[in-house]
Specification:
alpha+beta; 24 strands; eight-stranded antiparallel sheet; elongated; Beta-galactosidase, Chain A, domain 5
């Protein structure tokens, strides 16, 4: 029985049913020898990357960890080119993690740890979180055994790697759920199997790789130029399929996987370079994936276009999401950290940000609005601590494409950084588990935006941008307006003006509540709608008040005055154990207490309109910057010079 060609006589891709049939035949070992190797591996289209063999003593291996049930095979002398392309790994990591694995410990990084028995059950363990337990099915954690084993000619390590692959394959012949074949886990496993099959010339591992590659390829076959609704995990799956089909020499399916990759890459990156994940961290991660896809094209011997161009677009966006302290703004599933040290090497903007201004050239725009649902504004590109204002702010709204699991319900949310301090922050991801805090940080209530009680809500209607412009090229102001249509019979418009000459931020929330139709008999029991405005104060930020009711945020010698007008009195809630309110992520799985400043307006059944005005004024402890709010005007007097602007308002 011959293996079915990937193209039918008309030059079309086969139907899903036809391909499933071909895949079953292939995996069953009934396909032709052109794809399934009996003894030796088919080389990659590109030349093998030869890794030097270390002449160091073999690691000590406890006797109980010596694999059993594995027939020794010829020891390879080099790691395959697909391994080095898909999983570059330092010698230090190989050595450390391989020895841990031989001792029965899987280090899952942020996902925790997992204990390996001689015959793993693959079941969840309490020492790993939700993501970590799912990543056991990725199998990439076992690769240090292969790398270290080959590079030091340690037969026990290579045999243990092969044994783990065989055990997983035997235990998962059927009944695979989404978290085994889907998401990122199936893609990483496909890449791992392709790496292992090529390096070991192992028919069983290769058959498993081809089976997984067929599954990954089928996960996206929409014949679209732009994959709307895709996310970063789709890139991982199709990269695994590309590597496998290229390795076994199936040109048609290799090309199909590449077409999928291009469509998905165009789907996860907007034309302006912003991501669809609602998280600058994932934009940085996607740049890493695109670099790997480009390297995979080179290994496969095919053109990489348009991946390099798409990757270049990300640099402009990510650079705008970096604060003046050279850390990413914590939006969505992002923690405020510096850029990855390999991000955008050679790009002038990325080089400047990674080096903290020591190399490269800073970007030029001081106000940007992106299709991914971001607005970023700043006083200038002068870093913190240089004697000039360093104010930076962000606003979030609904992106042009569907949200992903890493996007928080943060429409309308504002963050504020100034004078080296993150004053109004974002809670970050906490960690990927089923905890109450993880659930809470994704909700509206966890962000510096507004909620409406006692009415219906549809997140998918979302917050849309209606205005985004700047006069920053002449030292002028930024103007932004967002409209929230998610609440039944209640519309809120948030307009923000950054007054660059006064270094102050004016936020005006316009609340418009329509009449609620309630049967006469139920009117006595009607519960009014409450619109609550919240500001998430970052860890380490204190609050002072004065006799006039004005509040001031304090951090060391730096302050931000909060001058308010309109409805609602301030209330402050401090983060406390047993509650999710007010906590921020400072590192993966690490929370730190902040506070929530809020005020509310009540809308009667008959409807009505209200306005909340909030002015944020950064200053030093010895400065006085008076603010007056009157007649739809705000006057800010800094260094003795009064600056008056009208309320920011929708056009």
């Amino acid at each position: 029985m011959e293996y079915m060609s990937s193209l039918d006589p008309r030059g079309q891709l086969p139907s899903a049913r036809e391909h499933r049939t071909a895949t079953r035949l292939l995996v069953a070992g009934l396909a032709s020898a052109s794809l399934v190797l009996s003894m030796t591996a088919i080389p990659s289209v590109a030349e093998e990357v030869v890794a030097p063999v270390e002449t160091v003593p073999s690691e000590t291996v406890p006797s109980e960890t010596v694999p059993t049930g594995v027939v020794p095979a010829v020891m390879p002398t080099t790691i395959g080119s697909w391994c080095t392309t898909l999983f570059p790994m330092s010698v230090k990591m190989q050595r450390t993690k391989a020895q841990q694995l031989m001792n029965g410990k899987v280090d899952l990084g942020k996902g925790g740890t997992y204990t390996l028995s001689d015959r793993p059950s693959w079941r969840p363990q309490a020492s790993a979180d939700l993501s970590g337990n799912r990543h056991i099915n990725s199998l990439d954690w076992a690769l240090p055994l292969l790398y270290r084993g080959v590079n030091t000619q340690n037969q026990n390590m290579v045999d243990r790697f092969r044994q783990l692959m065989y055990q997983w394959i035997d235990d998962h012949e059927s009944g695979r759920g989404y978290w085994i074949d889907g998401s990122i886990y199936g893609g990483l496993r496909t890449k791992t199997l392709a790496c292992g099959a090529q390096t070991l010339a192992d028919p069983k591992i290769q058959q498993a790789a081809v089976r997984d590659a067929a599954s990954m390829w089928r996960s996206y076959r929409r014949s679209k130029d732009i994959a709307i609704g895709a996310n970063n995990t789709d890139l991982v799956r199709q990269t695994g399929a590309l590597a496998t089909f290229c390795y076994v020499g199936d040109v048609d399916l290799r090309n199909a996987a590449w077409q999928n990759l291009v469509a998905i890459a165009r789907g996860v990156i907007h034309d302006d370079g912003s991501d669809v994940e609602g998280s600058p961290h994932y934009a940085m991660y996607m740049e890493k994936l695109l670099s790997q896809i480009e390297a995979s094209a080179n290994t496969c011997g095919i053109p990489a276009d348009p991946i390099p161009q798409l990757r270049g677009q990300l640099y402009s966006f990510v650079s705008q999401a970096v604060r003046p302290d050279f850390k990413l703004e914590s939006l969505g599933d992002t923690i405020s950290v510096p850029l990855r040290n390999t991000f955008g090497v050679g790009d002038w903007r990325a080089d400047w940000l990674r080096s903290r201004g020591a190399a490269g050239t800073p970007p030029t725009p001081r106000y940007t609005a992106y299709s991914g649902g971001y607005i970023f504004g700043r006083y200038s590109w002068v870093p913190s601590g240089q004697g000039q204002p360093d104010t930076f702010y962000s606003l979030r709204f609904k992106g042009d494409r569907p949200a992903t699991a890493h996007t928080h319900d943060d429409g309308g949310s504002l963050t504020l950084f100034s004078r080296g301090v993150e004053w109004i922050g974002d809670p970050g991801p906490f960690r990927y588990n089923s905890s109450a805090l993880r659930s809470f940080v994704k909700k509206r209530e966890a962000h510096s935006t507004f909620t409406v009680s006692n009415t219906g809500y549809s997140r998918w209607k979302g917050v849309v941008k209606t205005q985004g412009r700047t006069d920053s090229n002449i030292g002028g102001n930024d103007y932004s307006c967002l409209v929230d249509k998610a609440w039944n019979r209640t519309e809120i418009t948030r307009c923000v003006t950054y007054v660059r000459s006064a270094d102050a931020l004016i936020v005006v929330d316009y609340i418009n509540g329509a009449k609620v139709k309630v049967p006469k008999k139920q009117r006595k029991n009607y519960t009014p709608r409450n619109v609550t405005q919240r500001w998430q104060l970052s860890p380490g930020v204190g609050v002072e008040g004065n006799a006039d009711g004005q509040l001031t945020m304090v951090s060391g010698e730096q302050k931000v005055d909060i001058v308010q007008a309109g409805v609602g009195a301030w209330d402050i809630a401090q983060a406390r154990e047993g509650s999710s309110i007010g906590w921020h992520t400072t590192d993966w799985g690490v929370k730190a207490p902040g506070a929530v400043l809020s005020r509310s307006a009540t809308l009667p059944r008959k409807g009505g309109q209200e306005v909340m005005i909030t002015v944020f004024v950064p200053r030093g402890s010895g400065e006085s910057v008076p603010v007056t709010i009157a007649d739809s005007m705000v006057t800010i007097t800094r260094n003795g010079t009064p600056i008056t602007v009208g309320f920011p308002a929708p056009n």
